Amino acid sequence: MSGRTAPLNPHQPMARFAGRLATGLREVTDDPAALERGGFWAVAHDFEGRLTCARFDDVRPDPAPPATDRWQGPAPDVWRSSLDAGAYRAGVRRIREHIAAGEVYQANLCRVLSAPLPDPDRSDVDALTGLLAAHNPAPYAGTIRLPEHGVEIATASPELYLSRHGRTVRSGPIKGTGRTEADLLDKDHAENVMIVDLVRNDLGRVCDTGSITVPDLCAVEKHPGLVHLVSLVEGRLRANAGWTELFDATFPPGSVTGAPKSSALRIIRALETAPRGPYCGALGWVDADRGEAELAVGIRSFWIERPAGAPPVLRFGTGAGITWDSDPDREWRETELKAARLVAIASSGTPH
To answer: What is the pTM of this model?
Structure first.
């Protein structure tokens, strides 16, 4: 198939990942075991645990959607943050206190930005995906649109949570962000190695003993407006393990929680004032017929909520990993850097 197709009905269930468009919704379930029984699935796993798996009948090649008049973003000055600068800096200091007490080595502190959308008739999340693809291309970009199930997500994620090719599973944690490579500190490298150890441990629970390797450690990846340190962890899934066991062992992703994960999650719940939702969860696709899958960490992602009797609300999450060496001002600026380009695209249609 060549060229672009006409925009879909904005109320039509669909998913778009890896150059493929999925339509013809067959079923929706929250049972991860369904991902083993055949078909093409879109997956949205909220950070708080809600899992939505949608199976589609029609999957065909299709480029990213064109930017259309089906999207009108919020005004740039109406965005509000669940944590303001003062509260975020105080949270960084509090995490450092937990580190000093020996409770945790690293924890991610996140905030959620929210803004009302001015026109419900121009709030097609797939059109937003088209804008992101044009101005902020990302390796795991995509759309999941299931209006009747409360799932409308556009992602420009650069981070691999889990991929599967037969019994081979991979994870690509990101830790360390700067405008340029020169901005990356020793703290960023130490943080990355720490999370790689956590991911190795998580995958080790469901992979054959001795099969876990780290093909890449702290590689520098360039993305629009910033750079990341990225590692790759790989293992061979045990014969008796499937998606249920994989999620139980590895979710939420270690790169957006902290180490040890259980302590980091407890600290996150105490400090963050808004649910993360799809942000920091998992987003992507599973082709059960081919034994392949690609799920991204739900960073650099927008989602729409439609409260009854009120304008739809657009949300976007941003955060930073906090260690003993963290400076509260620098960590706040990192959250601003991660958000600025994408929020500008969603608001004005350009990165500026």
So the answer is: 0.95
